[in-house]
Design goal:
Elements: H1 11-33, H2 39-49, E1 55-56, E2 66-68, E3 72-74, E4 78-80, E5 84-86, E6 90-92, E7 96-98, E8 102-104, E9 117-127, E10 133-140, E11 150-154, E12 174-182, E13 189-194, E14 197-204, E15 210-220
Parallel strand pairs: 1-2, 2-4, 3-5, 4-6, 5-7, 6-8, 11-12
Antiparallel strand pairs: 9-15, 10-14, 12-15, 13-14
Amino acid sequence: MFKRRFRLPSPALVISMVTLSLVLGGTAVAASTAKHGDKKADTKLIKKLAPSLSVKHATTADSATNATHATSSDSATNATNATNATNATNATHATSANSATTATKANGPGTLGSGQTETGTVYMITPQNGGANYMGSSISFAIPLAAAPNVQVVTSPTAHCPGSTSNPTAASGQLCVYQLSKSNANTPGFEDVSKYGVGIFLPTAAGASYDYLTGVWAVTG
């Protein structure tokens, strides 16, 4: 009975196998690193995927559906932790959020925009005494102005104060106080006028009753 004998491969066969392995390995590396030149296909794929993409950590994200941690995010539906989020539907933790539907934890409202108006009420009352005196109050602006306004009390419409007690308005740069009622003939005065608000006072009369001043106001940036 014969035994099968296994022979070692010849040196030539070994060299051939090593050469073949190197050739095939180089081809695989070249195939994995090669770049195709079909730019039209790339553009078509990007346009197809673009509507479903989100923008995160971008320097600028204009009109994006989602813009997270962007430096600037204008007209985005959602702008979270953006440095600036203008006209965003939601602006959370933004440094500045102008005209946003929702602005959570923004640094502040800034200043009242040009042509924008704030309104409020004035109400002062104090007992009269044996001699003339003063009573005072203040008007504070929820949103500061860019500069201190001009101030006037009106009982009928003027060029700078064309509104009324039921619809107070003011021209740009004006604070208009529309008087509703007043207890005496003295004229109200103002002091410490600034972009944050103004002090208002009225000289009182001697007597045993009360002095008062009521009204509404409007200020426009």
